[in-house]
TrEMBL record:
Signal peptide: none annotated. The keyword Plastid does not apply. GO terms for molecular function: transaminase activity. This is Aminotransferase class V-fold PLP-dependent enzyme. Its cofactor is pyridoxal 5'-phosphate. Belongs to the group II decarboxylase family. Sphingosine-1-phosphate lyase subfamily. It comes from the Bacteria. PANTHER family: PTHR42735, SPHINGOSINE-1-PHOSPHATE LYASE 1.
Length: 505
C-alpha cells in the first residue's frame, strides 16, 4: 500500500526505489511503441537537459512576473517563436501577434473561448460553433464558461465540415467559430481559410486549434507536404493554440495561446481588486505556476533549433508513411483518411477483424494504440500519433500488425452477454447508482479494491495495456461503451474513473 505521509520520514534512496517500482506499471514513454499521450523525439541528452532546466526553475512562481523576470523572459521568447512559426511577427501580415504560455491545450482552448465570450458582453447567451471533430476541450470550455456548443457535422468521406453548414450555424449570439489544424482524432486539417473568411464576414472571432499540429505542420510544408493555409497568414484567423509538449517535444505541460493583437487578448485576462489582499491579475487560469515546465521548454527549443525540428519532422513523415503503408497492406483494414499530418487513423472493412480485439493483440506485442469509439455515423477506429521515435520501429510494426490482425480474426469479435446488452439498453444516466456501477465494473474487471488506484484518466478506450486492477485486455469494455448511447457512455466512464480515484489509507 502506498502511503504519502508516514509517521517518520523515509530515506531518499528508498523513495526513489519506490517511484521506480511504481513506474514499472506505466506504459513506455520512450521507444516509439506508444502512439498516444507522449511525444518522443529520440534525441540523446534532451531529457537530461530538459529535466535539469526544469529543476533550476521549479520553485520559480509565475504568479508575479515582476518578482521572477527570468520566467517572463522565457515566456516571451516562447510566444515569439510560436508566433514566427505560425505566420506572425515583424514583417508579416500579422505583426502585432501576442500570446500567453498555458499549462496545456485544454487550458489554451478554454482561454480562447473565454476571451471571445468576454469580448462580447452584449451577448447574453453566447454560442460556440465548432466541427464535430473539434477537440473535446471545446465542449469542456463551453460547459465551464456557460457557452452553448453548436457542433457542425462532418462528412463521413472527408471527415471535414461543410463550409455551408458552418455558415448556417453562425448566428447573432455566436462569439467564436473554431476549427482544427489538424483534428486530433483523424489528423485532417479543416478548411480553415474558408471558415475564417466566413467568420470574418459575420464579425466573429475564428480560433484555430493547432495544439496537435501547429509545431509540425509548418515543417511538413517545408518538406513538400501540401499543407493548406491555417495560420495568421489568413486575415480571418484571430487566435491560434499550439502545444509545445507535443511536436516541440518539451516536457508536459506547455502550450501557447496566440492572439492577432493585444486588443484581442485583453479579454483573456482576469483581474480582481475587490478584496483586501493583493490585486489579482492572471493571464491564464492558474495563479501560482511552477517555472519548471517553461524553463524546460525554453531549453528544449534552443537546443533542438529550427534545423533540428525540420529533421525531426522528416523522420516523423517517414514514420507516418511507413505505418500507413503497413496498415494498407493488411487485409481487412483500411485507412480512414490519407495521412495529412502525423496521424495514422484506420478502421476495418466489412470482413476485417474486431478493432478492439486488434488493439488488445497489438498491446500484447508491445504496441500501445488508442481505440476510438464510433460516433455519429463515423466508424470505430484506431488512432496512432506518430513521432520521430516511431520511424526506426516501422520494420517491426508491420509484421506485428499482420500477426495481430490474424489473431484478432481467429478470436472473432467480442460478444457481449445478452443480460449485459439488455441492461445497457434499459439504462439511462439517471438510473445509474453507485452500487450498479460498482457491480458492472467488477463484472468487467474494473473493480479496484478499496485503497487501490490505477489506470488512465483518458478512460478505458484510450489504453490498450493498463495494469493493476484494470484488465490488460480492454475489448470487452470498449465494446460495451461503443454499444451504449453517448450520454450513458459519458456517465459510465465518469463513474468508472470515480471508482479508481479513491484515497489510500
Amino acid at each position: 500500500m502506498v502511503e504519502a505521509l508516514p509517521a517518520e520520514g523515509v530515506p531518499a534512496d528508498q523513495i526513489m526505489a519506490e517511484l521506480r517500482d511504481l513506474r514499472t506499471a506505466d506504459l513506455p514513454t520512450h521507444g516509439g511503441r506508444l502512439f498516444a499521450y507522449v511525444y518522443d523525439p529520440a534525441l540523446p541528452g534532451l531529457d537530461e537537459l530538459a529535466t535539469a532546466a526544469y529543476a533550476l526553475s521549479a520553485h520559480v512562481n509565475g504568479l508575479d512576473p515582476t518578482a521572477f523576470p527570468s520566467l517572463l523572459t522565457m515566456e516571451n521568447a516562447l510566444v515569439g517563436a510560436a508566433s514566427r512559426l505560425l505566420g506572425g511577427g515583424p514583417g508579416t501580415a500579422a505583426p502585432d501577434v501576442v500570446g500567453s504560455v498555458t499549462g496545456g491545450g485544454t487550458e489554451s482552448l478554454i482561454l480562447a473561448v473565454k476571451a471571445a465570450r468576454d469580448a462580447r458582453p452584449e451577448v447574453t447567451r453566447p454560442r460556440l460553433v465548432v466541427p464535430a471533430t473539434g477537440h473535446a476541450a471545446f465542449a469542456k470550455a463551453a460547459h465551464y464558461l456557460g457557452v452553448a456548443l453548436d457542433q457542425v457535422p462532418v462528412s463521413a468521406e472527408t471527415l471535414r465540415p461543410s463550409v455551408d453548414d458552418v455558415r448556417a450555424a453562425i448566428g447573432p449570439e455566436t462569439v467564436l467559430v473554431a476549427c482544427s489544424a489538424p483534428s486530433y482524432a483523424h489528423g485532417v486539417v479543416d478548411p480553415v481559410a474558408e471558415i475564417a473568411e466566413i467568420a470574418a464576414m459575420a464579425g466573429v472571432r475564428c480560433h484555430v486549434d493547432a495544439c496537435f499540429g501547429g509545431w509540425v505542420l509548418p515543417y511538413l510544408r517545408r518538406l513538400g507536404v501540401p499543407v493548406p493555409p491555417f495560420d495568421f497568414t489568413l486575415p480571418g484567423v484571430t487566435s491560434i493554440s499550439v502545444d509545445l509538449h507535443k511536436y516541440a517535444y518539451t516536457l508536459k505541460g506547455v502550450s501557447v495561446l496566440l492572439h492577432r493583437d493585444a486588443a484581442a487578448r485583453r479579454s483573456q485576462y482576469f483581474a480582481f481588486a475587490g478584496w483586501p489582499g493583493y490585486t489579482m491579475v492572471n493571464p491564464v487560469i492558474s495563479s501560482t505556476r511552477s517555472g519548471g515546465p517553461i524553463a524546460a521548454a525554453y531549453a528544449t527549443l534552443r537546443h533542438v533549433g529550427d534545423d533540428g525540428y525540420l529533421r525531426l519532422a522528416e523522420q516523423t513523415l517517414a514514420g507516418v508513411r511507413g505505418i500507413a503503408a503497413a496498415v494498407s497492406g493488411v487485409d481487412g483494414l483500411r485507412l480512414l483518411a490519407e495521412p495529412e499530418s502525423t496521424v495514422v487513423c484506420f478502421t476495418r472493412t466489412d470482413s476485417g477483424p474486431d478493432l478492439f480485439v486488434l488493439a488488445d493483440e497489438l498491446a500484447g506485442r508491445g504496441w500501445h494504440c488508442q481505440p476510438q469509439l464510433s460516433y455519429a455515423g463515423l466508424p470505430a477506429s484506431i488512432h496512432l500519433s506518430v513521432t520521430a521515435a516511431v520511424a526506426p520501429r516501422v520494420p517491426e510494426f508491420g509484421p506485428d500488425l499482420r500477426a495481430s490482425a490474424e489473431a484478432a480474426r481467429q478470436a472473432g469479435p467480442v460478444r457481449l452477454p445478452a443480460e449485459v446488452l439488455a441492461l445497457a439498453g434499459a439504462l439511462t444516466p439517471e438510473l445509474l447508482t453507485p452500487e450498479l456501477v460498482a457491480g458492472l465494473a467488477a463484472g468487467l474487471g474494473l473493480g479496484a479494491a478499496p485503497g487501490e488506484s490505477s489506470g488512465d484518466a483518458g478512460g478505458p478506450a484510450g489504453d490498450g495495456g493498463a495494469s493493476g486492477p484494470l484488465p490488460v485486455r480492454m475489448a470487452l469494455v470498449n465494446t460495451l461503451l461503443d454499444a451504449v448511447p453517448l450520454a450513458l457512455r459519458e456517465r459510465l466512464l465518469a463513474e468508472f474513473l470515480g471508482l479508481l480515484q479513491r484515497p489510500t489509507y
